[in-house]
């Protein structure tokens, strides 16, 4: 128990350190761009006096280090922009305030997260089940038709651009066959059926492309695992082939699969940019793109940090699962 607590504390410290370094890097990169967000918010006509007042209100008249310090303070204790009756307060955890959208970045992220999470989690479950099943089946039928079929599907999936597959799916199943909606998102609380029906196409597109790498990885790992000594020993003791495959073989294969799956899911939760654009869904990916286009530094920093946090969190969960899936794996 003490080892687990110490491990969690070390990972928490490394998580905070990575987020601090990443946030500082994003700040420096965007302040190196020869553009002025205050001028975009100033309006027309933008006199020098109005521009200076906009910079002061947005706290852009401070140095980069001062602004970064104010950002970190806002995450912990909240932040106030301006003063008097026109002041704008952002409650903690405050990842900044989007002046073009006139809303706190934290609120924008929480509003868009259900869309991205719906896409990512649904597609991830499909590609995990399909990819692992086909990979195991291909390994157990090496050299046969099923093996060649699964490997062929994997090669097609790896070589296919996601945006092209998405557009073709919309064209064929949305317009020609008129089977599924072509865009939009319906919240789960409004109608679970419509929610799933609007997501079935992006789920299938993402799952088809991502499952390709899981087929190849599972097949190669399963072939290697089935030739190890503990598999031979289990068979010699009279264990059935089904038990050998599921209990002994698949358990060892799941260690690298879970590692890749956790990172893929964490990255996708941070914003399925191409999928959201192709299917016109307002998720975190679309929020990030609009933030870059409007030079909305608060949105870019907030979404970037949130995405990084999800990836790091997924990596932490994967490390904890390793010891459960395979006692041979130890944490360093």
From TrEMBL:
Q: Where is the ABC transmembrane type-1 domain?
A: 113-322
Q: Which InterPro entries match?
A: BPD_transp_1_N, MetI-like, MetI-like_sf
Matches recorded under Gene3D superfamilies:
MetI-like
Asked if the keyword Transport belongs to this entry, the reply reads yes
Q: Does the keyword Transmembrane apply?
A: yes
Give the principal location in a single coarse category.
Answer: membrane
Report the Pfam families cross-referenced here: BPD_transp_1 (PF00528), BPD_transp_1_N (PF19300)
| Database matches in PROSITE patterns | ABC_TM1
Q: What superkingdom does the record give? A: Bacteria
Where in the cell? Cell membrane
* Membrane-crossing segments per the record: 12-33, 117-140, 152-176, 196-217, 252-275, 295-318
**UniProt keyword terms in alphabetical order:** Cell membrane, Membrane, Transmembrane, Transmembrane helix, Transport
Specify the protein's topology with respect to the membrane: Multi-pass membrane protein
**UniProt-listed PANTHER family:** DIPEPTIDE TRANSPORT SYSTEM PERMEASE PROTEIN DPPB-RELATED
Give the similarity note: Belongs to the binding-protein-dependent transport system permease family.
- Protein's name in the database: ABC transporter permease
To which species is this protein native?
Answer: Kribbella koreensis
């Amino acid at each position: 128990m003490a080892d687990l607590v110490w491990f969690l504390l070390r990972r928490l410290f490394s998580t905070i350190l990575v987020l601090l370094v990443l946030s500082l890097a994003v700040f420096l990169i965007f302040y190196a761009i020869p553009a002025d967000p205050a001028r975009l918010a100033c309006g027309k006509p933008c006199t020098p006096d109005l521009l200076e007042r906009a910079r002061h209100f947005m706290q852009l008249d401070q140095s980069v280090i001062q602004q970064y310090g104010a950002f970190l303070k806002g995450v912990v204790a909240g932040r106030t922009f301006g003063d008097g009756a026109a002041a704008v307060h952002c409650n903690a955890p405050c990842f900044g305030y989007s002046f073009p959208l006139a809303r706190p970045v934290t609120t924008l992220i929480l509003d868009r997260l259900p869309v991205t999470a719906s896409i990512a989690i649904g597609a991830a479950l499909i590609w995990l089940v399909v990819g692992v099943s086909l990979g195991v089946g291909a390994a157990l039928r090496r050299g046969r038709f099923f093996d060649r079929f699964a490997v062929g599907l994997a090669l097609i999936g790896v070589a296919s651009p996601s945006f092209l597959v998405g557009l073709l799916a919309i064209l064929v199943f949305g317009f020609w066959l008129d089977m599924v909606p072509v865009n939009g998102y319906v919240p789960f609380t409004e109608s679970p059926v419509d929610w799933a029906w609007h997501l079935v196409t992006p789920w299938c597109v993402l799952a088809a492309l991502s499952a390709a790498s899981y087929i190849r990885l599972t097949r190669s790992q399963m072939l290697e695992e089935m030739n190890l000594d503990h598999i031979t020993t289990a068979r010699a003791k009279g264990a059935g082939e089904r038990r050998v495959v599921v209990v002994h073989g698949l358990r060892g294969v799941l260690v690298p699969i879970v590692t890749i799956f956790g990172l893929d899911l964490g990255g996708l939760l941070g914003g399925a940019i191409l999928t959201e654009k192709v299917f016109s869904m307002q998720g975190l990916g679309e929020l990030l793109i609009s933030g870059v286009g409007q030079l909305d530094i608060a949105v870019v920093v907030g979404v970037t940090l949130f995405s990084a946090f999800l990836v790091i969190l997924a990596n932490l969960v994967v490390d904890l699962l390793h010891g459960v899936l395979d006692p041979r794996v130890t944490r360093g």
